[in-house]
Amino acid sequence: MSLTVQVPASSANLGPGFDALGLALRLYTTVTVCPSEVLEVCPLGTLADCTPKGAANAVYQAFVQPFALRGQPVPTVRMEIASEIPLARGLGSSAAALLSGLLAGNALLRDPLGQGELLDLAACQEGHADNVAAALLGGVVVACFGGRNAQVLRLDPGKLGALLVVPEEPLATSVARGVLPDQYSRHDTVHALSHAALLAAALATGKLELLGVAMQDRLHQPYRAKLVPALESLLELAPRWGALGAALSGAGPSVLCLYDRDRGEPRDLEQAISGWMAAVGLRAQLLRVAPDLQGARVIRPGAGAQAGTGGG
Ligand code: HSE
CA separation (Å) from 144 to 17, 129, 136, 288, 310? Predict the structure, then answer.
């Protein structure tokens, strides 16, 4: 059987929700699998230059996992992998690769793993559930991951729009996690708890005017700012130019600016950021991206898209 899996990009943290909050975005990794006489793993487009062909590819490595878990032989397939998600830019490309492989393998097995099992499996491998939960469920997610099982609530992003500043230079997540302290003061912990809680509540109730305050962070952005020179300025300037709030996207280096789609297209914000980028010499792409509402989907020939997952 042939099938296609599409998994959205995601922006994790949203400021103070470190490893806990995420937003799915309409940029996709698309993986097509069909029967073949020999194994072929084919990254397409820009992926062809920077990700492995053959069994070492991360998507294929994830694809085989459901078969191993079920004690089933892995079928020989041709796998084509295409992605619109910029790699190593804090937009959930690795979560999308992992989930697209898991979902493709699970779908070929006729969905033995349910949504919760897929989420736990992916979160265990990522070490946190924010990106994988957003990519799997779509929308905004609040994810709690204790190391084995994830508890996730999905919220509707309502009128949120996202404007991304995506720098040309990549940043490895391991490097961006490596600069974080092991311990925090009680003061910073209370700051983080209260802001993340306010942010989740503001998103759940649609009180978008609170995002400017609620997205403030002391847990990771101040430490990562030395790796992302544009960060501090953009966090300060984007709200002045009309953004509801701004945050480092995931581990960076992209910066997420949220805006209210009810107020129309964010042309002033885009122009102000473009002008500023030119003035400071920041080489980055400006991408306006809508939230993804559906999450990961499996598309089987002759059937409609099946949201996310599998059995249950
Ligand atoms: N929450 C993660 C981080 C996302 O900020 O390190 C990147 O994988």
Answer: 10, 7, 15, 29, 22
Q: How far is the CA of 133 from the centre of ligand 1 (A)?
A: 13
What residue has token string 């204790």? 146
Is the separation of the CB atoms in 154 and 23 below 8 Å? no
218-274 pLDDT, tens digit each = 999 999 999 998 999 999 999 999 999 999 999 999 999 999 999 989 999 999 999
Which residue is closest in CA terms to ligand 1's atom 6? 251
Instruction: For each of the domains in the chain, give its residue range(s) and CATH number, in order of start.
Output: 3-156+292-307 (3.30.230.10), 160-289 (3.30.70.890)
Q: Report the separation in Å between the CA atom of 19 and the middle of ligand 1, taken as the mean of its atom positions.
A: 6
Residue of 173, 180, 223, 255 to mutate, ligand 1, most atoms within 8 A of C-beta: 173
Q: How many angstroms is it from 171 CA to the middle of ligand 1? A: 12
pLDDT tier for residue 301 given thresholds of 50, 70 and 90? confident
